[in-house]
Amino acid sequence: MGRLLEGSEIALAKLITLVENNPAGMTGVMPMIQHRLGKAFCIGLTGPPGAGKSSLASQVIKALRSAGAKVGVIAVDPTSPFTGGALLGDRVRMQDHYLDPGVFIRSMATRGSLGGLARATKDVIKLMDVFGFDYVLVETVGVGQTELDIMQTTDITVVVLVPEGGDGVQAMKAGLMEIGDIFVINKSDRPGADSMAVQLQGVLQMNPRYASAMPPVMLTQGTDGKGVAELVEAVRARQAILGDTDLEERRREKRNLEFEEILKWAVVEEWKGLAGSDEKLKDRLSEVVEGSKDPYTMLREIFPYGCIRPLTD
Ligand SMILES: Nc1nc2c(ncn2[C@@H]2O[C@H](COP(=O)(O)OP(=O)(O)OP(=O)(O)O)[C@@H](O)[C@H]2O)c(=O)[nH]1
Ligand SMILES: [Mg+2]
After folding, report:
1. Please, are residues 218 and 184 in contact by the beta-carbon 8 Å criterion?
2. Which of 22, 107, 192, 307 to pair with 116, CA 20 to 30 A apart?
3. CB of 44 within 8 A of CB of 154?
């Protein structure tokens, strides 16, 4: 633990592995780091597969590094359970930075449970924060609930879209339009980028979330870094607007949500423990699954001293 705070990358890597493999591992680590949290500014980068998130991340790292900031990067890959193409892509796209001691890149893939992945990502953000990074970048494919969940833990979210056919509409369906603080149309060297920016602005204007202030819509090129200086400027501007008070307000909400999640996770774990094994759990659940028993009765049987009681009690 001490070695983490001294800046040992090996200690950081080991702790991340611990957290990935066993969420309960954090119970030993957290009390030691809790009072040091909150210094890093966490930026989420999300968007459809192949939108250029890793390429952009690499350019953003470059810009932040040249301003002297230290950067931690988490590339989350919920879509492929095995170290597949996307993670390889992240490595290739960000390879320039692997040897830089001011940059630490970690890829994370699911090992079965998507909820577990979201949980682990949040804890890894904390580890990177206490390690002393000024910025933590989190890249994730914006297609499902887990990704949205991860994005809700970052301080700001950059939504990355691309001009070609249908992506705009897809993204709107995926709920990406709700979570962006900054919108980027990457691959702006391709035709249709300008008209997509106009279309996107139209959609955002109708969204009540942006009634008081419209988020910036920017054009970038992940391959050669065009527009990235402006993007980093927009991130800094957001950071400045949030200031300490609004940022803390956002973080309070997040801590509240996080606790509820951990509570749910703990109850489920407790319940699995009581059942004994996955087989027994399945057996116990069968009546609920088949519909012969209602879920509340089941809850009372599992936790007889819990808060679920009929009104007549
Ligand atoms: N033409 C063009 N290609 C780009 C641009 N940015 C990235 N690319 C290319 O798009 C492809 C995907 O880029 P990535 O950075 O891996 O995209 P990603 O969103 O991280 O992909 P996943 O992590 O697999 O979802 C690569 O071949 C990049 O070289 C750009 O601005 N213009
Ligand atoms: Mg990527």
Report:
1. yes
2. 307
3. yes
Which ligand ends up closest to the CA of 58? 1
Please tell me the pTM assigned to this model: 0.88
25 lines ligand 1 (CB under 6 A): no
CB 69 within 8 A of CB 134: yes
CA distances 84 to 77, 78, 89, 91, 225, Å, are 9, 11, 9, 11, 26
- 63 alpha carbon – ligand 2 mean position (Å): 18
Atom 24 in ligand 1: residue holding the nearest Cα: 86
Q: Which of 182, 183, 186 is nearest to 223 (CA)?
A: 186
Backbone phi and psi for residue 46, each to the nearest 5 degrees, phi listed first? -140, 160
Q: What is the pLDDT of residues 207-255, one digit of tens each?
A: 888 988 899 999 999 999 999 999 999 999 999 999 989 999 999 999 9
pLDDT at position 173 is 57
Terminal CA-CA length for the chain: 49
What's the pLDDT tens digit per position in 159-172? 999 997 655 555 55
Domains of the chain as residue ranges with CATH? 2-246 (3.40.50.300)
Spell out where 48-127 has E strands: 71-77, 103-109
Q: Which of 182, 150, 142, 154 is nearest to 51 (CA)?
A: 142
